[in-house]
Fold each of these.
Amino acid sequence: MSKLKSKTVYLCSACGDDHPKWYGQCPSCNEWGTLGEYKVAKNRKKGGNGQPRDSRKLADVLHGGEVNRIPTGISEMDRVLGGGLLPGSLILLGGNPGIGKSTLALQILPAIQKPVLYVSAEESEDQVGLRARRLGVNSKTLHLSSENRIEGILDQISLVQSELVVVDSIQTVFSDELDSLPGSVSQIRECGQQLLQLSKQRNIAVIIVGHVTKEGIIAGPKMLEHMVDTVLYLEGDDRHDHRVLRSAKNRFGTTNEVGIFQMEAGGLVEVDNPSELFLAERQDDITGSTIFPSLEGSRPILVEVQALVSNANFGTPQRNVNGFDFKRLAMLLAVLEKRLGTHMGTKDVFVNLVGGLKVDDPAADLAVITAVASGARDKLISESVVLIGEVGLGGEVRSVSRLDARISEAKSLGFKSVIAPAANVKRMKKAPKGIKIFGVSNVGEAFQHLF
Ligand SMILES: Nc1ncnc2c1ncn2[C@@H]1O[C@H](COP(=O)(O)OP(=O)(O)O)[C@@H](O)[C@H]1O
Ligand SMILES: [Mg+2]
């Protein structure tokens, strides 16, 4: 293979764009201090062999056969992907080190009855073998390789004729043509680009595993997000066994879809009923606790909101929040103070979404504000009610998406009543049986029902 010459460019660690000269501020994404000097391969041909490609008529592709997605054998994973792996797609599987990315990647492979290549640039084949034994993974079509040169990986793929490739992880793979270290922005971009070309040319699915670290959150996988078709993040924290697989981007399915798993000795186990998991240790005799059906992707999951309100011992009261937006909590506290006359200025407020789930659904507002009010007033909220609604600055309760799905999840777990936005309730065609629905147009009305 002829050695290609390299040239110097200035790559942005935030957006991955390259520039011929150095700037203090990236001209593409306006981030400051992100450009660094890198050598990249010269003469890299953009479109394969340099020949212009033929265009095709829409009519010709419209009636092409349905693409067959490849099921992974793990239904939570398939749902998050939008119905299985799509041939020709590039998928990024990101997450903190140790969260279970390699475990998940290995567990989905045996179901695929086609040649599969698992490139473990991080671990030796024997180490992967050990893990496979622990996970009970066995497959006749699975090939392991600990190659870490991208050129070697591409050769292996041709050799094995694999239809699915896992590269674990992109931070340990490098190209001979660059003289920067594996894991650097230029290497990640170069290798990502080569894998992208390969997946489109050969019509194979490629899963790129990428570590996300607190400091390097932008430099690595974030840059790849623009390049790939689907971005999956495996989340969770050290204190809990459950893991949440979330699609942050999906060209071939809905985004923000989640799959819930439990990490066990034998690997990741799917959780069929996440609401039950999140409510398992609920105590119904404490103040400051409410239940909220959060919409995670297309699926409602019941989450408990806990709030603790106590007198502040020091000058500035503390606000601490887990799983919910800090600024949103500050806004809700201001609404509670101004519109509902509950004095919060000298109180410490702690809010926790139980189970480590992170919710950015505005429909959680009513449950959060009610939990805080219940804590502040020391009054219990009935354990059989769920609360749904976005709260506006005027204390009004605004409508939310997919109320019916949220209500049916609450009903299936035995809840007896729902407090929901009046505007939503008015639009409902048929009231569901077996659960009472109270429409409220402001937080005050909700409190009248509850306190
Ligand atoms: N013998 C074991 N029993 C139970 N869990 C294990 C065992 N070995 C590893 N794990 C779990 O697997 C995790 C590591 O998973 P791994 O897939 O290697 O993570 P990643 O690839 O994201 O760095 C550990 O944090 C631990 O939770
Ligand atoms: Mg790993």
Note: The domain at 277-450 is CATH 3.30.230.10 (Ribosomal Protein S5; domain 2).
Amino acid sequence: MIAKWENLTRDEIAALDKDKAIVLLPTGATEQHGAHLPVGTDSIILSTLIDKFVAEATFEEGTLLFAPPLLVGKSNEHMGFAGTLTFGTQTYYAMLHDLVKAIAASGFKKLVLLNSHGGNTDMLNMISRDLRIDFGMNVFVFDWWFTSFWNKGLEGLKESGTYGVFHACELETSLMLHARPETVHMELAVDEDPVACLKDNDYVTVFGPYNAGWKTSDVTQSGVIGAPSYATAEKGAKLFDYAVKELKNIISAFARTNY
Ligand SMILES: [Zn+2]
């Protein structure tokens, strides 16, 4: 069964077989996405994927329960552009810890932090270990920015160059053109590569391998990092279809992984 937490009753949640249940806690963001995309882009993409997953996927091995999504995350790198909302590091940690404490108190033993924003990733990887230690749960981090997830989905679709997919980019704009086209202003879209010192060298780029603690205005003037001019709704539709299937494979792997 696949369900949303908010749609079940107290007694239905109590009756679920907790040995075969996985709670997925969606972690989104509300932050500037250039001039052409709405600030809710990360959260809208994640909610759209979840809605498609609930409608189209099946899960026979037990219950997948999507917790209420967090529409604000850790986005302080985007401060300085209007519209960005963020929790501070300590607040975000404390809030996630409190929420998972409550999820564990309902008897759940397995959790997936289901993330759509690259700025949340470090926190989620760090807290996953604390949650394991504090609540005894099996905790997994699903992240699509620092894994091969989207690269796999973009095979045969991506037309932009090395830095074309990063933020408010070919990928995110395509997904938004499919999910919520009325909020996308393509006439305002600009392509922008990262600043020269953070690209095309062997050591420090926005993709690593070594990290610089940048804020967005260090990297881009427009707030875009990537090439939204290559985005199309058709690509977005294919990417969502891919994402539903691949997410199912990943969650099934989490279901088989008991440690
Ligand atoms: Zn985004």
Note: The mean pLDDT is 97.
